[in-house]
Design a protein that fits this description.
The chain has helices at 22-33, 47-54, 83-96, 133-146, 150-167, 175-184, 187-192, 196-207, 213-216, and strands at residues 14-18, 37-41, 59-61, 75-78, 99-102, 115-119, 122-126. It folds into 2 domains: 14-113, Rossmann fold (3-Layer(aba) Sandwich), CATH 3.40.50.720; 150-220. Helix content is 44%, strand content 14%. With 221 residues, it is α/β, with parallel strands linked by helices. The longest helix has 18 residues, at 150-167. The strands form 2 sheets. It has a 5-stranded parallel beta sheet with strand order 3-2-1-4-5, sandwiched between helices. The chain starts with 13 loop residues before the first strand and ends in a 5-residue tail after the last helix. Strand 1, helix 1 and strand 2 (37-41) form a beta-alpha-beta unit.
C-alpha cells in the first residue's frame, strides 16, 4: 500500500469516534485540538471523555453504535475492542465514501494516523505505512529531542513578517528569496541562543527598517 501524504483540515467538520476507552480518548483529543466537531458513541465512556463532554468540547452518546451515526459525518474512527464491529464500521464507511480509520488495523483503513511531532505551527508527520508503528513512535521521540521551541518561535516570526510584507503590498513571489536568506543566515540558531541584537541586525539588513524582533514578537519578550 502506498499512501498519499496529506494534512487534512477538519475544523468545524463533523467527526465520529466509536469507542470510549483510552484509545478513543487519544483520537478524540487530536481531533478536538484540530478544531473538529466530535461525537463519541460507546456504551462505556472513560473519565477523560466524560470530563470533556461536561465542558461542551464534544458530544457523547453512551450507547451502542448504529449505522445511522455515520450520517453526515466527514470522518469516522473505529476504536473499539470488538473486531467484528470495527469491520462493520469500515464496510459501511466505505459504502458511504466516508474517511475511515480503524485503530491498529491498517488494512481496514482508507487513511492512517501518523505519529506527530509538534512545535507550535511546525508539524511533522511520521508514517511507516502501517509496517511498524513502534518504529514511528521511536522516530517521534527522537525528533522531539532534536527540535526545540526555537522552531515554534521562528515560524511565528515568519508568519508575522509575511503578514507585514503583504500589508506593504509586496508581491508574494518576492518573499521566497528573503525568507531563504533569513534561514540560510542562521536566524533559527540566533533565536535558539536568544541573540536578539543579531536577530535585529539581520532583519534590518534583509528586510529594511521597521522589522524589530521585540515589536514583531512582543509575547516572546
Amino acid at each position: 500500500m502506498k499512501y498519499y501524504p496529506i494534512f487534512l483540515d477538519v475544523k468545524h467538520r463533523r467527526c465520529l469516534v466509536v469507542g470510549g476507552g483510552s484509545v478513543g480518548a487519544r483520537k478524540v483529543m487530536t481531533l478536538i485540538d484540530c478544531g473538529a466537531s466530535v461525537t463519541v458513541v460507546s456504551p462505556r465512556i472513560s473519565e477523560k471523555l466524560t470530563a470533556l463532554a461536561k465542558n461542551d468540547s464534544l458530544i457523547v452518546e453512551k450507547r451502542p453504535f448504529k449505522f445511522s451515526d455515520l450520517k453526515d459525518k466527514f470522518l469516522v474512527i473505529g476504536a473499539t475492542d470488538n473486531q467484528e464491529l470495527n469491520q462493520q464500521i469500515h464496510a459501511e464507511a466505505e459504502r458511504l465514501d466516508i474517511l475511515c480509520n480503524i485503530a491498529d488495523q491498517p488494512e481496514a483503513c482508507n487513511f492512517i494516523l501518523p505519529s506527530i511531532v509538534k512545535k507550535g505551527d511546525l508539524v511533522i508527520a511520521i508514517s511507516t505505512s502501517g509496517k511498524s508503528p513502534a518504529f514511528a513512535k521511536k522516530l517521534r521521540k527522537d525528533f522531539e529531542k532534536l527540535l526545540g521551541n526555537e522552531y515554534a518561535t521562528f515560524l511565528e516570526l515568519m508568519g508575522t513578517i509575511r503578514k507585514k510584507l503583504l500589508a506593504e503590498e509586496h508581491e508574494p513571489e518576492a518573499h521566497k528569496p528573503l525568507f531563504e536568506e533569513l534561514i540560510n543566515r542562521g536566524l533559527i540558531e540566533m533565536i535558539k541562543d536568544r541573540r536578539k541584537k543579531d536577530i535585529n541586525l539581520l532583519l534590518s539588513e534583509i528586510l529594511g527598517e521597521g522589522y524589530v524582533f521585540e515589536e514583531l514578537m512582543p509575547a516572546d519578550n
